[in-house]
Design brief:
This protein has 106 residues and is mostly helical. It has one domain. The longest helix has 23 residues.
């Protein structure tokens, strides 16, 4: 589906330039999906090993660093034509998402 994002979006009525840019952006998501296949199982196995506390601290730091970079890019200039302001609507459904995330950890 990632490879066909541009024609799918055009078929669904998106303007050509938006479909093209989205297709290019989506292609960069593919390597992330492969990384998740390694990161998530490792994150679940590492806490069982007491001698890797520093490793888990590094993993946590890396994830939070990524979150800060994405937030900064979104709010401070990554999308000046689409970003109008920060809104409480960004947190819509956060409680449900949190509950789902917690239930998947058990």
């Amino acid at each position: 589906m990632y490879f066909f994002a541009t024609p799918i979006l055009k078929y669904l009525g998106q303007p050509g330039d938006i479909g093209k840019h989205t297709g290019t952006t989506v292609a960069w998501v593919i390597p992330i999906r492969f990384a998740f296949a390694f990161v998530f199982p490792l994150n679940h196995s590492l806490p069982a090993q007491e001698h890797v506390i520093g490793t888990m601290a590094t993993v946590n730091g890396a994830w939070w660093f990524n979150a800060r970079i994405l937030f900064t890019n979104t709010t401070c200039g990554g999308c000046p034509l689409t970003w109008t302001s920060f809104s409480i609507e960004a947190f819509t459904g956060l409680w449900e998402f949190g509950k789902l995330s917690l239930s998947s950890e058990s």
